[in-house]
Amino acid sequence: SVGILQDKYPYHQYIAMDAAAAIKQLRQGQKPQWPANTESLEFAHSLDQSTEIPKTFRPEFVVPSKAQLKRKTLKDDAQTANPASTPDDEAIYFCGNSLGLQPKAVGEHLNAYLKTWGSIAVGGHFTALEDSPLTPYQDMAAGCSKRMADIVGASPSEIVAMNTLTINLHLMMAAFYKPTEKKHKIMCEWRPFPSDWYAIESQIEWHGLDPKKSMLLVEPDDGHIMTTKNILRLIDENVDELALIMLPGIQYYSGQLLDIPTITAHARKHNITIGWDLAHAAGNAELKLHDWDVDFACWCTYKYMNAGAGSIAGAFIHEKHGNNDHYKGLKGWYGHDKSSRFLMDNKFVPTPGAQGFQCSNPSIVDLTCLAGSLSVFEKTSMTDLRSRSLLLTAYAEHLLSQIAARNIKDGAFPFQIITPTDPRFRGAQLSVLLPEDVFDDASAALVEGGVICDKRKPGIIRVAPVPMYNTFNDVWRFMQIFEEAIRQKGQGQTQEPQSQGAPVEARFVLKSGAYSDLTIICNNDTYKVHKAIVCERAEFFARNLKFGGKESESGIINLPDDEPDTVRLLIHYLYGGEYKPLLPDNNCWAGVTLSAFKQAAKESRPLDNANSQPYNYDFPHTCSHPNRACTKPHICPHHTCSNNKDCKTGSHLYTCSNFNCEECNPSALPLSSINGKADQLLLHSEMYEIADKYDVVGLKDLVIEKFHRACQHFWDSDKFSVAAHHVFSTTLDDDKGLRDIVSATISAHMGLIKKPEVKVLLNEFNGLALGILEEKIIENGW
Q1: How far apart are the C-alpha atoms of 588 and 537, rounded to whole Å?
Q2: With 90 as the cut, is the pLDDT of residue 665 above it?
Q3: C-alpha 13: how far from its chain's center?
Q4: How large a percentage of the chain has pLDDT more than 70?
Q5: Long-range contacts from 661-668, C-beta under 8 angstroms, 24+ separation
Q6: Over 60: is that where the pLDDT of 603 sits?
Q7: 3-state class of 635 per DSSP?
Q8: If we measure between CA atoms, which residue out of 659, 683, 671, 657 comes closest to residue 587?
Q9: pTM score
Q10: What distance in Å separates the CA atoms of residue 503 and residue 410, rounded to the nearest whole number?
Q11: Measured over all CA atoms, what is the biggest interatomic distance in the chain, rounded to whole angstroms?
Q12: pLDDT of 412 above 80
């Protein structure tokens, strides 16, 4: 499959990218301007070699080869004995959001631990060997806590390495969830990781309460994303009943990074305790838990912190809660102050700060693994890791957008990225939603291609390029395999240029603006479009991006000399293989400006009745509906459908075009609207001009068909001569497409030559008179 992406744009020249500027834009929530060659392997290599991007620490990690992924035994065979010899032999590991890769330092630390244990046994609790990377066992938890403090933005006294994530959540809720008869609710997300749900549910039940009444769920606004506005509203509405807020820093399913400082500040304003599950945020996002005044937070260390499966977890307790006089957590001997821990007098004196929340002796094996992983973090900073991550994930998003745009089928994308597009509100992960009937086969194809990423039924693939060890080359290689997977295994099928217009009806793709990588501007109109569609259907844009200089770099094409109406219809044609004139109808649009009509006609809106099905309005119509004043667009109720379907409901209304007021049957219009509809004659001739100007595949043929049909109905309109003049003024003598139709129309209705405006045409354009003569010769068999 190698070469799928780069073969799509053979005309793309190499263009360098200002990576530092791109990272700055991403930090501000803006998308960078990607050059035209982003889908080339050379571009990926240029990013990996850029000194403007914080470096990768991939050499510090054990990256399995594709062959090793298939091994069945610990014992090496001929295929698994040696590491990958080239980057292409390495597995593509995008599963750091589930389990991070093994740092090489972990093996070194574990060997040191085993040597220490074997050499001095119990002495390892109090003594470290001189050449060991390890501290005495009793100091290892504090040492790891100090290192983790920088990762989550806290002071060392506010951090503790202990237990595992769910246990720590229980310990924190035991300390901070103190329900009363009135204040008993815990706010949490609508779809938490199951263990979080079970923990919250059981804590509520532990206090003798009903989870159905005491769990306040934050629902997403659009199916997947929880907006900060909605969270703040829920807090305000339930302020008298909320005892605790516990939310994820990053939602595990969608990859959304919540606005932790804003939500925390709002909780502080109402004096509500707030805690955060940072399983997917620690080591991934920049955090400032102390400065944000978070009450508590918990995280695991086996994901982005790479400490190994089931490794020891971390917890943060703000220093305001760590004072001995205010200690309120469950107790255990390892939370006792270190100076008197071994006195065994059963008088609990908590260790100041978060260390006092410990109950048991932490696993030294786990701490050894964590210490090995944290030794890599000491070589960088979260600021640098986040900068690299922002660009790495944005690059992945950009390439996915290209794949989505060129694999449109039946007007739908082959997949959807449900992670927020604003880089400030996501981490490394992109959650890609595939159709259920595609998911299994596509997942299997990824595995076959040596890709390891996390899958969640029914259709989510979680792609997480981790900045610590993933490269831009990894991203590029993944995209090769992913596109091949959706092309072969599912609904995606790469669209190739076709001779008769655009291959799909994709107006909803255009309307959504999703995955746009090119902007076309015409006066006040801006269109977020897709190179994969526009360049394949209009050679002008392909050439412009290849040789256009600043257009190639900026991703913006300006068309200042064209009519906005014509450009709008051109864009619609490029996406749908069709264009429909939006002309005001005299009956329905009396007193309504054309600009208002156009604005209203662009969008899908509900009917007057809130319970009605949505509709889309793409064309003018004559309306005799008794209960409407026709001050806004609606589906015309007066038509017969050739498909014998009820066109007023369901998805069929978006594709049905057999309305009695549509241009295919303009004779059904009352005379009062004939002149308005006749305006399409000129519009069609303008569309022919723009099709020729921008070398648009199939558009001229479509215009010829439409113009011929319109001339049959509106030949006697005064608009006919205007359109005819435009045709002969804007086409070459040997371009017979519309010229022949004008000549044939006059020949069929010779009375037209008596009209003054037609006589002017005959005098101005000799080719027209000759054309009429030729038509008459053919007609009479001369």
Answers
A1: 35
A2: no
A3: 27
A4: 78
A5: 661/585, 661/619, 661/620, 661/621, 661/622, 661/636, 662/619, 662/621, 663/580, 663/581, 663/619, 663/706, 663/709, 663/710, 664/709, 666/710, 666/713, 666/714, 667/713, 668/622
A6: no
A7: coil
A8: 671
A9: 0.71
A10: 9
A11: 124
A12: no
